[in-house]
């Protein structure tokens, strides 16, 4: 047991979370490879919102599609559920389509992602960048440290694993801002797996030996960091995160959401506390999940749902009749 089971979350059935991510994934899958990121994202958002509003809960979106004036649906602070004001109070972190660009281009690892916890248990992260560092389970506590250099972290992980640094594989988002990081890692002899998008899947990849990914490094969206932490709380691993601010407007946004220490290095359990449930459904084929497939009048989906209190991981395959 990784945490005490929440009776509040017991009232929101685990499999109901899968139905929500399935709905978003199916809606987005109709637009895979069509070249329109916004349309694919909008379809996933609308489907996820409709599914959330069928559930008996008083839900609040704490990680969403941006702030209210920036997103028509599923904005931070939006209330969802069929029992607002009377049902169990649930905090929700979501990304209806994690990987909009790769969906538009029919690339790998696009997901519909959702995490829930009791009220106040998920960091209300502002929509800014976050420096991230993650490893899977089985390492000594605090084997990774954002206060140290990438090289120092790789050497620490390699030593804990009983291998040389050149035997470590690191997953990094393929972005110009990571050129120096990639150069430093390759100078150590590390293998670098560059991904075009989808860093939730990238972080989770560190927990699966079949991916060969040992470490995740680099900066990406802070909301995705919280979602990834919810998954790691369920299946094990370590995560360190630090918010990155490009200007005063982003610092002011963080202050509005209650962030007082702008230089703080967050640990896994500070980003996702207590009992939590994580669910994801594949939109396109990836290292974690198969994507949505159309077979005649049916669509097939593959999903995973995890719970922190029990450490349970369920793999769910579904068939859905479609028009």
From TrEMBL:
Keyword Hydrolase: yes
Entry cofactors: Mn(2+)
Catalytic activity: beta-D-fructose 1,6-bisphosphate + H2O = beta-D-fructose 6-phosphate + phosphate
Molecular-function GO terms, alphabetical: fructose 1,6-bisphosphate 1-phosphatase activity; metal ion binding
Keyword ATP-binding found: no
Coiled-coil region: none
UniProt-listed InterPro entries: FBPase_class-2/SBPase
Residues annotated to bind substrate: 98-100, 129, 175-177, 197-199, 221
A GO cellular component annotation in the UniProt record: cytosol
Pfam family, one: FBPase_glpX
Binding site for Mn(2+) 1: 41, 65
Gene Ontology BP terms: fructose 1,6-bisphosphate metabolic process; gluconeogenesis; glycerol metabolic process
Residues annotated as binding Mn(2+) 2: 95, 98, 224
SUPFAM superfamilies referenced in this protein's UniProt entry, alphabetically: Carbohydrate phosphatase
Keywords: Carbohydrate metabolism, Hydrolase, Manganese, Metal-binding
Family: Belongs to the FBPase class 2 family.
Family matches, as NCBIfam families: glpX
Name this polypeptide is given: Fructose-1,6-bisphosphatase
Source organism of the structure: Sphingomonas guangdongensis
